[in-house]
Amino acid sequence: MIDPYCGAAPLPEELLSRWNFDPVLLVMLAGGVALHLGSLRREPAAQGRILAAAAGWTLLFMIFVSPLCALTSALFSARVAHHAVLVAVVAPLLVMSLPRVGVPVRIGAAGGAAAFVLHMVLLWLWHAPAPYAAALADPAMFWVMELSLLGSAIWLWGAVLAPAARLGATLALLLGQVVQMGLLGAVITFARAPLYEAHLGVTAPWGLTALQDQQLAGLIMWVPASIPYLAAALALLASRLDRPVAADEAAR
User: Fold this and answer.
1) Could you give the CA distance from residue 87 to residue 110 in angstroms, rounded to a whole number?
2) Model-level pTM?
């Protein structure tokens, strides 16, 4: 059996030494940070976007380079938390930190709906047992999983955070995310047997059976992973309270 990209499942006493110093990954992360921050420094009043970019790239470093990467090989709950951070925290931070060159690209309702459907399909696909096992068995497939989840999430958050987006459509996207992630979390939580073969026999050192680990993963997907979407919905509602109705009509 091929070890997953993040390495074999660690024991608790090994975890702090299990950093991922993949040179290709480190070069890609360093290059991405340099290009991203370099593009922002050429723009006036970009401090907020620079901070968002720094936070997003720091989180990417933590989930792919720090021992948290190795922990995902042992615990499915850690993998789900990893994916939740990737799609619900890193993706919006990267969208908020994009350089503002010229007129913002408008993503209409159809584009937002397409982004939602694609992201939902990918989220369910990569948390199904067979595709998940394939991603852990092949580093190339692992990166297909990670980049497709991040890319589709960036597209979705781009629709949500677009300045010209209609409030109703935006709230529908965010609440739709809460519902579909809750459903996926419920399916994982209430499964009566372990679904993920890669985590059989490696969760015990962490004080969990494979089924308990899976149930914890489902609860993470069900509740904490939904918080960023609910927070974004509340923030958008608050930001529009003083906005004239005519402004929303003009954005249609």
Assistant:
1) 21
2) 0.91
State the DSSP H helix or E strand holding residue 122, giving kind and residue range, or none if neither.
Answer: helix 109-126
Alpha carbon distances (Å) from 86 to 83, 130, 175, 243: 5, 21, 18, 32
| CA distance linking residue 218 with residue 204, whole number of Å | 18
Residue 57 and residue 38 in contact, taking contact as beta carbons nearer than 8 Å = no
Alpha-carbon distance values, 165 to 91, 173, 244 (Å): 18, 11, 15
List C-alpha distances in Å: 193 to 89, 132, 163, 221: 30, 16, 45, 18
Percent helix, strand and coil across the chain, each rounded to 5? 75, 0, 25
Q: Which of 38, 84, 29, 31 is nearest to 60 (CA)?
A: 29
Each residue's pLDDT, cut to its tens digit, for the chain (252 residues) gives 567 899 999 999 999 999 999 999 999 999 999 999 988 887 777 889 999 999 999 999 999 999 999 999 999 999 999 999 999 999 999 999 988 764 445 566 678 999 999 999 999 999 999 999 999 999 999 999 999 999 999 999 999 998 878 889 999 999 999 999 999 999 999 999 999 999 999 999 999 999 999 999 999 999 999 999 999 999 988 887 766 544 454 445
